[in-house]
TrEMBL record:
CDD domains: RNase_HII_bacteria_HII_like (cd07182). This is Ribonuclease HII. The lineage of its organism: Bacteria, Pseudomonadati, Bacteroidota, Flavobacteriia, Flavobacteriales. Manganese or magnesium. Binds 1 divalent metal ion per monomer in the absence of substrate. May bind a second metal ion after substrate binding. Residues 9-198 form the RNase H type-2 domain. Keywords: Cytoplasm, Endonuclease, Hydrolase, Manganese, Metal-binding, Nuclease. A divalent metal cation binds at D15, E16, D107. It is found in: Cytoplasm. It comes from Salegentibacter holothuriorum. Endonuclease that specifically degrades the RNA of RNA-DNA hybrids. Its cofactor is Mg(2+); Mn(2+). Its main location: cytoplasm. One of its GO terms (cellular component) is cytoplasm.
Amino acid sequence: MLKMYNLPCQIAGTDEAGRGCLAGPVTAAAVILPKKFKNKLLNDSKQTKEEDRKSLKEIIINESISYGIAHVYMEEIDEINILNASILAMHRALEKLQCEPEHIIVDGNKFKPFRNIPHECIIKGDGKFLSIAAASILAKTARDEFMKKIHQEFPMYNWQQNKGYPTKEHRQAIREYGSTPYHRKSFKLLPEQLKLSL
């Protein structure tokens, strides 16, 4: 039987999306790109227009050596905290790769070892390395799709627009309608949660 590990896999980039949101999962992706991969549009997902992200998603899926995407949902975030959930999402995305990388590069400054594979944390890595930028695009587009889907269930929070981030509009909707099963209970959903009424 052919071993997947013999494929030309060198570096996997990984990144997450949705860490600072009040609702929805934290989503991560891991991507291994061919050595000669180039694309002028590819950049940190936060610096990329939505229509460009959509076309980049298709390019990355079709041209990458391998990719994986994983969600960690609200209940697990509340149980293990958002930092651990972000790392867990990245681990789960790495597990979905069809071949084992020789090295992992991670956006940010926190990670836990994965299968004894050497890793490096890179601050703002999604603006420096193509494979991390590609992972940020896949994580962001997958999470946005999830938020648009659950928007149909709870349109009053306008998740198709704010994606679960703590915008004024989102917080106002929480004041008016309360929280939903998609909200992270361990997060401070409203600033006044910490104030005592005297």
